[in-house]
Q: What sequence folds into this?
């Protein structure tokens, strides 16, 4: 769907939220909406930016509703399908924000699915300059600002750990150790991945990933936590 304006009801259906909450948040200035002839209108591209930036600040119920809306209620694995074993490195050789992004793209290239590594790297760098993707729990979710269907042969998620941690712009000022690179092909899938990761990261997953050295063990843990999220629906 093109990035057009949406009404309150259209936005509510799109993100799985009660229309009354959408109106309340718009009136309080929490959502990037504008009044047009007495009616609230929300630009879809601006809402995508807002959701990417604010998803981890939402109430768990709203995150779960967003995930359900983006997945269509499908119980299939998302991370399990997009995270191949060769896209996991639990000892990524990076010492700075710039180097970790380059190493993440190199990790993605190991899968043989990346068509345009420079384009992917540039898009991820631009997203970080716009707003850091680091979270307070030692995890970051680097991703392009918009889905890049021509950068990779298939949608892809990569997982990496930098044991020593690096400054990555976390809101609590702490070092970031765990990185999920998200390379999506379309908006719904992109938001579904971010929402499901947000649900999984609210558990002990970040702490557990700090303790794991083997990629196969890390993948098994991701699959286990994803199944737990699906089962809690």
A:
């Amino acid at each position: 769907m093109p990035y057009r304006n949406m009404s309150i009801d259209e936005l509510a259906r799109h993100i799985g939220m009660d229309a009354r909450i959408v109106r309340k948040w718009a009136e309080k200035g929490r959502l990037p909406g504008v009044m047009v002839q007495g009616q609230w209108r929300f630009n879809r591209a601006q809402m995508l930016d807002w959701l990417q930036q604010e998803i981890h600040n939402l109430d768990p119920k709203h995150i779960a509703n967003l995930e359900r809306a983006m997945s269509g209620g499908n119980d299939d694995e998302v991370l399990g399908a997009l995270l191949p074993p060769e896209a996991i490195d639990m000892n990524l050789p990076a010492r700075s924000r710039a180097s970790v992004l380059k190493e993440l793209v190199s990790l993605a290239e190991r899968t043989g699915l990346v068509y345009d590594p420079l384009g992917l790297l540039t898009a991820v760098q631009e997203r970080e300059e716009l707003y850091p993707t680091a979270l307070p729990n030692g995890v970051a979710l680097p991703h392009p600002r918009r889905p890049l269907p021509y950068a990779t042969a298939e949608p892809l998620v990569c997982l990496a750990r930098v044991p020593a941690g690096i400054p990555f712009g976390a809101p609590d000022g702490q070092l970031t150790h765990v990185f999920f690179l998200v390379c999506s092909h379309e908006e719904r899938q992109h938001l579904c991945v971010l929402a499901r990761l947000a649900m999984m990261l609210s558990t002990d997953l970040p702490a557990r990933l700090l303790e794991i050295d083997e990629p196969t063990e890390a993948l098994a843990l991701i699959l286990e936590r994803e199944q737990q999220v699906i089962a809690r629906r």
